[in-house]
């Protein structure tokens, strides 16, 4: 299947954590964490419309200024999501600069911020360049089953995990089902391609009943043709359904049985998992003190959830020169 997105680490394993999911055909990207993002080319940063921050330790949030600086003046704003206290922290970041010139910008750059409270309620606020990024409250909302973003082609869910007495959010990017058209079967039925196929797919996605009539209209040299066919028949004859991919991002979590249980549920059906592997098992006491996963624990979590592919990251700089050891430990636990 032709993948419609790229998911990749922002930095190498010893650099700041972060993953960019680039939805190339939509000219849009989402970013998990915003530490040092200077390695990303401007054209990619400009596509970021949704930013998800696991927690606000500096290595996960310090690059927000860089992102804002690059994107300011762009006509689409940015939506940012984070854990409890996130909106106030964003507000303070924005308040640290002088904004007397942005009023002259042609476009109003709007940051919409959402924070997930401990009760599952989502508080929201916005910051607009036109008003020098003063905080404006927005009505709150809920995140049923952790659902933060529901767009036409994908969803993003979250779950809070324990990290040194604070929550760290894990994220799941879930692509919608791909609906493809069997061109050869269309030909066999003597049907043309055209805008009607888009309409058919939209109706199928919306769950329209099988007896919904679909009008196919086309012109040839012989004149114009009209045909009405029931949606159900077209669905079974010319459409192919391919399940979307699930990509998860897990970082800065303590190795507790509760986190492991939560992750086993949250990661079910994951095609690609990005997971922190900060320490080696030989330093597990240190990992415990810092509330991070060892490579072995990360591998065991990946195995428990039967993920199809996994990429470890966020290696401690103490293992510079021993990258292969960390990877090895992770792989061994994952495939055990
Ligand atoms: Zn970190
Ligand atoms: Zn942290």
Would you write up a description of this structure?
The chain has about 325 residues and is of the alpha/beta class. It is about 25% helix and about 35% strand. The chain has 11 helices and 18 strands. It has helices spanning about 40-45, 60, 65-70, 85-95, 185-190, 195-205, 230-240, 255-265, 285-290, 295-305, 325-335, and strands spanning about 5-10, 20-25, 30, 50, 80-85, 110-115, 120-130, 135-140, 145-150, 155-165, 165-175, 180, 215-220, 225-230, 240, 245-250, 270-275, 310-315. The strands form 4 sheets. Strands 1-2-3-4-5-6-7-8 form an 8-stranded mixed beta sheet, with helices on one face. The protein has a 6-stranded mixed beta sheet with strand order 9-10-11-16-17-18, with helices on one face. It is globular and about 75 Å long. The two termini are about 30 Å apart. Bound molecules: zinc ion (ZN) (2 copies).
Got a strand count? 18
Radius of gyration: 23 Å
Bound compounds, please? Answer: zinc ion
Low-confidence stretches: none
Q: What are the secondary-structure elements, in order, as H or E?
A: EEEHEHHEHEEEEEEEHHEEHEEHEHHEH
Number of helices: 11
Mean pLDDT: 94
Query: Order of strands side by side in the largest beta sheet?
Result: 1-2-3-4-5-6-7-8
Please state roughly what percent of the residues sit in beta strands, choosing from under 5%, 5-15%, 15-25%, 25-35%, 35-45% or over 45%. 25-35%
Main structural class: alpha/beta
Please estimate the helix content: 25-40%
First and last CA, distance: 29 Å
Largest sheet: 8 strands, mixed
What would you call the shape?
A: globular
């Amino acid at each position: 299947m032709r993948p419609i997105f790229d998911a990749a680490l922002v930095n190498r394993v010893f650099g700041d954590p972060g993953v960019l999911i680039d939805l190339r055909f939509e000219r849009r990207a989402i970013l998990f964490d915003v530490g040092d993002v200077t390695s990303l080319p401007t054209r990619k940063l400009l596509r970021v419309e949704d930013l998800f921050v696991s927690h606000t330790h500096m290595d996960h949030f310090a690059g927000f200024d860089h992102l804002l600086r690059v994107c300011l003046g762009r006509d689409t704003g940015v939506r940012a999501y984070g854990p409890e206290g996130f909106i106030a922290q964003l507000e303070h970041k924005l308040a640290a600069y002088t904004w007397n010139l942005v009023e002259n910008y042609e476009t109003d750059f709007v940051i919409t911020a959402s924070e997930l409270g401990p009760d599952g309620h989502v508080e929201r606020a916005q910051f607009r360049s036109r008003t020098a990024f003063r905080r404006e409250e927005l009505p709150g909302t809920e995140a049923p089953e952790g659902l933060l973003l529901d767009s036409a082609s994908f969803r993003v869910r979250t779950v809070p995990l324990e990290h040194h007495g604070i929550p760290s959010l894990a994220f799941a990017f879930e692509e919608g089902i791909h609906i493809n058209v069997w061109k050869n079967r269309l030909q066999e039925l003597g049907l043309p391609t055209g805008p009607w196929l888009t309409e058919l797919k939209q109706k199928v996605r919306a769950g329209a009943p099988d007896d919904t009539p679909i009008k196919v209209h086309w012109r040839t040299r012989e004149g114009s043709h009209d045909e009405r066919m029931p949606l159900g028949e077209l669905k079974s004859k010319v459409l192919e359904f391919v399940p979307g991919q699930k990509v998860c991002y897990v970082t800065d979590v303590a190795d507790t049985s509760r986190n492991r249980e939560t992750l086993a549920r949250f990661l079910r059906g994951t095609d690609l998992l990005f997971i922190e592997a900060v320490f080696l098992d030989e330093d597990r006491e240190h990992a415990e003190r810092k509330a991070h996963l060892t490579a072995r624990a990360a591998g065991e979590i990946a195995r428990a959830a039967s993920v199809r592919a996994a990429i470890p990251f966020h290696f401690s700089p103490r293992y510079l020169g021993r990258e292969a050891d960390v990877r090895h430990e992770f792989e061994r636990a994952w495939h055990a």
